[in-house]
Design goal:
The complex is a heterodimer of chains A (295) and B (462). Chain A has helices at residues 8-39, 57-63, 66-97, 105-117, 120-131, 138-144, 159-184, 188-196, 201-212, 214-239, 251-260, 264-288; strands at residues 42-43, 52-53. Chain A is mainly α. In chain A, strands 1-2 form a two-stranded antiparallel ribbon. The longest helix of chain A has 32 residues, at 8-39. Classes of the chains: A mainly alpha (295), B alpha/beta (462). At the A-B interface, helix 2 and helix 5 of A face helix 11 and helix 18 of B.
Chain lengths: 295, 462
């Protein structure tokens, strides 16, 4: 009985028990990734028609394609902007609402979480009306300062940031809830003893709250990257569909459009590059933030 | 006894059946010929059909016209056709959801109308061939069998896709090649690009004193330029060149093609400023609404926009549509049209009567009734524009269609060949670049260079 956990029979049981999940994982996650990689070396229209081997030509064309660089730039802008601003806001609100310090706490939790459950189509309609030159809020406010406003969704320099703001609005509640849960698990004695030692609220935040929630923050950083990339496709498609003239394209949208044009192999190339980028970025972030929480 | 019973039974049966055969012959002289006409009750209503029925029965006293004009006419006449008692004349377009006309075509159930075209319309010395606008005949509208030029259908109505406007703000172009001043609150309908851009200047000047003056132009999304660009290339450089463009030949830097994009770029000074901000899936209706609200004069669109915007269009608003612009006074203009066809059922027993009915429709008598009671319908028949004005149709709307009637407007045939090349999105290149040119982030030269490089890539894959 003492060696139950390490007995060969137990180990064998564990190995066999995980096979079904591993099979599912292999079929639905690992295989498609390698399939995508393989198809990126092919020229195909995605439906009928033959697949012809294309070698590295897709990659050659890709790295000379200005549309690709524009979409890549937009994707990076969104990842950085959404991650940084959402993180700061979510932590801020979480530290205000955690541990029951503020009145009306559960009301605010619900309020902040509502954007996260709205459909993306609804959110895009809300922000479209907000940004609208005819019906929105921005035009009258700017006219108080004597400036005219002719719409931001048609401005190629500003359209990506406008989409980013909608994404931040949607995401803050989700991460705030996670951070509240992490903060609630910090023992109260730490704060009490720090308060007795004369530490200010801000000092307490940086010395106690942040390090103690660090593991949760690390996990959410990976979430940020993945979810921003995925949501960027939904938001851009719902709000602008790449307009004006491709200025708000992100990599997934560009990939979908190329596939619709019948350049299936090329869209797989874009997907492969995006996958490698996202994977590498997550790895780097994990390495950089690797800290022993007891420091 | 048995044989007698059989004989009696047989005679009784004969006695019952005989009257069925006997009655026809004796009453034939006093029974009227029945002509069954069926068709769609759409935006044009059915009042004009009732008027035509009365007029036709007056002209042909021995005829009884039976109309079946309904919104869901296919539901009513399909069982009749299946039972062999279908209508003789059908007014029903191709491209409808029920595809009844397509089914008739594929069942070879249409009468060959070649002979009919050589006959004279009712009460006039004009053949049907000479009455119908030649630019609307052909092109699969009237000869649906591939490789066969025989006419089996005729275009009864047509509607122009192209420039859409509020017909009450427009008066007819006087043909002098320059854009004249505003008269009685109405602007002259431009027929050339020069007049169009000059109108933009006039509007900009007027707006300095009257802020409610409309802007010249808007578009729902840049994708809606997909007919305006080829139609303008055809008008500027000729149909042969636009066919080359459709095959991605390198014609983009010739002077005639260049001026198309230069003119499109020149619209930047006259375009409704909120156009590009609204040129996406959430906002395109606002750009369409701008025409209805009088914020912009012209937009490129298709006939469906009337139904699409019906909920937000005040009653009494009159839509006008016109083909795209010419590049010289009296020069060719191109547009695309939707047509609704009329044809004769091959199973008809009164073919010559059906043909007389069609000849009546296209005669002056028929055209006047359609113009008066047809709720704004346009028939592709010569002289219809004059008939329409006399019958009181909206003058601005008639002004838009004038090009088709005086022969300067032609129907654009063809589209870009199917081709794909990595990294190339052709619709984005030839249409959506307009957004960048309108908001100043790209120049017309950038546009032409992009057309050049992308079309070369596509041509290589053809």
């Amino acid at each position: 009985m003492a060696n139950f956990k390490n007995s060969p029979a137990t180990k064998r049981f564990i190995r066999i028990g995980t096979i079904p999940t591993f099979l599912l994982y292999a079929i639905f996650v690992i295989y498609p990734i390698f399939n995508m990689l393989g198809l990126s070396f092919v020229k195909w229209n995605g439906l009928l028609g033959k697949k012809s081997f294309y070698g590295f030509k897709n990659y050659q064309i890709l790295f000379q394609d200005p549309n690709f660089y524009l979409a890549f730039k937009n994707t990076i802008i969104l990842i950085v902007m959404v991650t940084v601003i959402t993180f700061v806001l979510a932590m801020l609100f979480a530290s205000m609402l955690a541990k029951g310090k503020m009145a009306g706490q559960s009301f605010f939790r619900i309020l902040f979480y509502i954007p996260n459950i709205l459909s993306i189509v609804v959110i895009s309609a809300i922000f479209y009306m907000l940004y609208s030159a005819d019906y929105g809020l921005i035009a009258p406010i700017l006219s108080l300062f004597g400036k005219t406003y002719s719409g931001v969704l048609g401005n190629p320099d500003k359209v990506v940031y406008s989409v980013g703001i909608a994404m931040i609005w949607q995401a803050v509640g989700y991460y705030m809830v996670m951070y509240i849960a992490a903060m609630d698990s910090i023992p109260d004695e730490l704060y009490e003893s720090a308060g007795l030692d004369g530490a200010t609220k801000a000092r307490q935040f940086f010395s106690i709250t942040l390090p103690m929630t660090w593991q949760v923050v690390r996990v959410t950083l990976t979430f940020f990257i993945i979810s921003t990339i995925n949501m960027s496709f939904l938001f851009v498609t719902a709000m602008t569909d790449g307009a004006p003239d491709g200025a708000s394209n992100v990599l997934l949208v560009y990939m979908a459009k190329q596939k619709a044009q019948g350049n299936f192999g090329y869209s797989m190339t874009i997907g492969t590059v995006l996958f490698i980028f996202a994977y590498a970025l997550s790895l780097i972030i994990q390495r950089l933030t690797n800290k022993d929480p007891q420091d | 006894m048995k044989r007698t019973k059989c004989l009696i039974a047989f005679l009784l049966i004969l006695a019952v059946i005989m009257p069925v055969f006997a009655s026809g012959n004796s009453e034939k002289a006093t029974v009227k010929q029945v002509l069954k006409v069926a068709g769609l009750k759409g935006a044009y209503g059915d009042e004009y059909w009732k008027q035509i029925e009365t007029a036709f029965e007056t002209a042909y006293p021995n005829v009884d016209v039976q109309l079946t004009i309904e919104a869901q006419v296919e539901k009513t006449i399909t069982p009749q056709i299946q039972a062999g008692a279908g209508p003789d004349v059908l007014y029903l377009a191709t491209g409808r959801k029920e595809q009844l006309t397509e089914t008739m075509i594929s069942s070879n159930a249409l009468v060959n109308l070649t002979n009919l075209l050589t006959k004279k319309v009712y009460n006039e010395d004009v053949t049907l061939q000479d009455r119908i606008l030649p630019s609307i005949m052909g092109n699969g509208v009237t000869n649906p069998y591939a490789g066969d030029d025989t006419n089996y259908m005729l275009p009864l109505f047509f509607s122009s896709n192209g420039l859409f406007f509020n017909a009450d703000l427009i008066y007819d172009n006087n043909g002098n090649g320059t854009e004249d001043a505003k008269v009685d609150g109405k602007y002259e309908m431009p027929s050339t690009w020069d007049e169009f851009l000059a109108l933009g200047k006039i509007l900009n000047t007027e707006r300095t004193t009257n802020a409610a003056t409309p802007y010249l132009f808007t578009y729902p999304t840049a994708g809606y330029l997909d007919t305006m660009v080829p139609a303008s290339i055809a008008a500027s450089a000729g149909e042969a060149t636009v066919k080359q463009a459709f095959n991605y030949e390198p014609i983009w830097e010739t002077a005639e093609v260049k001026r198309v994009f230069e003119n499109l770029g020149a619209i930047k000074d006259y375009i409704l400023p909120t156009t590009v901000g609204n040129a996406n899936v959430d906002g395109f209706r606002n750009n369409q609404q701008a025409i209805i609200d009088g914020k912009a004069l012209f937009m490129t669109n298709g006939d469906w926009v009337k139904g699409e915007m019906a909920d937000t269009t005040p009653s009494g608003f009159n839509w006008g549509s016109a083909p795209f612009l010419a590049f010289s006074n009296g020069g060719e203009r191109f547009g695309t049209v939707n047509t609704e066809q009329i044809y004769i059922n091959a199973n008809t027993k009164v073919q010559s009567l059906a043909e007389d009915f069609i000849l009546f429709l296209y005669s002056q008598t028929g055209l006047e009734l359609i113009a008066k009671y047809g709720n704004g319908a346009f028939v592709p028949a010569k002289t219809y524009d004059e008939v329409a004005l006399k019958a009181g149709m909206n003058a601005g709307a008639v002004a838009g269609y004038k090009g088709y009637y005086d022969g300067t407007a032609k129907v654009l045939i063809g589209s870009f060949a199917a081709a794909n090349a990595e990294g190339v999105n052709w619709k984005q290149t030839y249409c959506e670049t307009m957004d960048s040119v309108m908001n100043g982030s790209k120049t017309v030269n950038d546009w032409i260079q992009k057309l050049k490089t992308d079309s070369a890539k596509l041509k290589a894959t053809l």
